[in-house]
Design brief:
It contains 10 helices and 13 strands. By secondary structure, it is an alpha/beta fold. It has a domain at about 100-315: Rossmann fold.
């Protein structure tokens, strides 16, 4: 018994020493969490008020530089909110662009002329109505695509995440983790994609006309039979979701940009980013309240392994019961800022020195 206990203790000691040695190999520094009060600071996320309501707080602080890479060539100012500090904390960051990836979450090619479109008369997809999808497309063209074009050629990777498992069409249309198609393959895949998307009728049933309500619980019965969002076969038609969803035509896709298949899961994405030496991620895309946080390339996954910066004006939240996403986006970015760093397009700059 004594021998077994001694052996167990030795094993524990060896494991602890190995852990300490591994940690010792990683460079560390002492971060002085000094907070200097900012005066007369302009609102945050104020460059595109038609898409995102600017953020204003009573108290804002300036903190020391957080990320400070040797050989940095990319400046990314960022902020977060702290209830304990009673305000917003801003800090500069200096990144190496070749250690940085820009990821766009769910740029669905819906209602963009490629063929996949919201079914009539009551179907729902992406931002759930054609009008809302067109507004999001305007945001993509005005904010995200120019940002991607500015970053392309400087950062290590430009990437897009999309729904559905890997399929032969998109594998030959976009660069993926394990394959880069030729120009000929891309052209052939584009034709196949067009044919596939145009093969659907994009017709579903009209809204339900009669509901059966109980006397005691009519509200429960009402919403059970007539929910606020149903995107299944009844309203979208059979086969609507069984297509190779393309990257929206509102994005300028380059041959070296990389497609992420959601259904492959987070681990292949993590492995691919590590393979390319990526430590930092600038996250853009849709929808702030859902896919942007919780899908494969969402910040809940990425922030476990990488330095993530949410580009707060390069995302939109879904906006039910409103004609603008500005307030919903403000609310969800503000909530994310409790545990995430937020930047904005104009704060991501090349370092000239």
């Amino acid at each position: 018994m004594t021998a077994n206990l001694t052996a167990s203790k030795l094993c524990i000691i060896v494991v602890l020493l190995a852990t300490q040695l591994a940690t010792a190999d990683e460079p560390t520094r002492v971060y002085h969490n000094r907070l200097d009060l900012l005066k007369d600071a302009t609102p945050l996320l104020n460059d595109y008020p038609e898409f995102v309501q600017p953020i204003e707080e009573v108290r804002r602080y300036e903190a020391p530089i957080l990320v400070n890479d040797d050989g940095a060539d990319l400046s990314v100012r960022a902020w977060r909110f702290s209830y304990n500090a009673r305000g917003i904390i801003e800090m500069p960051n200096r990144l190496r662009a070749d250690k940085t990836a820009v990821i766009m979450v769910h740029p669905w090619g819906i209602d963009d002329g490629q063929g996949w479109k919201t079914p009539e008369p009551a179907g729902a997809c992406d931002f759930c109505t054609p009008t809302k999808n067109h507004l999001a497309a305007e945001h993509t063209r005005k904010v995200i695509d120019p940002f991607l074009q500015k970053m392309r050629g400087n950062v290590s990777l430009i990437m897009y995440s999309l729904i559905a498992p890997p399929d032969p069409i998109r594998k030959k249309m976009y660069r993926t983790f394990d394959y880069t198609p030729t120009d000929k393959e891309r052209a052939e895949a584009k034709k196949l994609l067009t044919a596939k998307l145009q093969s659907l009728p994009y017709k579903g049933e009209p809204l339900v006309k009669e509901l059966t309500l109980s006397k005691e619980r009519p509200v429960i019965d009402y919403f059970r039979q007539f929910p606020g969002l149903s995107a299944r076969d009844r309203y979208n038609g059979k086969g609507f979701w069984n297509v190779p969803v393309p990257v929206t035509a509102d994005v300028t896709v380059h041959p070296n940009d990389v497609l992420i298949f959601d259904q492959e899961g987070y681990e292949p994405l993590k492995k691919f980013l590590n393979k390319h030496g990526v430590r930092h991620v600038l996250l853009t895309g849709y929808a702030t309240d859902m896919c942007f946080c919780r899908t494969t390339a969402g910040y809940e996954n990425l922030s476990k392994d990488f330095n993530v910066f949410l580009v707060g004006d390069a995302t939109l939240a879904t906006f039910p019961a409103n004609n603008t996403p500005k307030y919903a986006t403000n609310a969800h970015i503000s909530f994310a800022s409790i545990d995430q760093l937020i930047t904005q397009v104009s704060w991501v700059k090349q370092i000239d020195d």
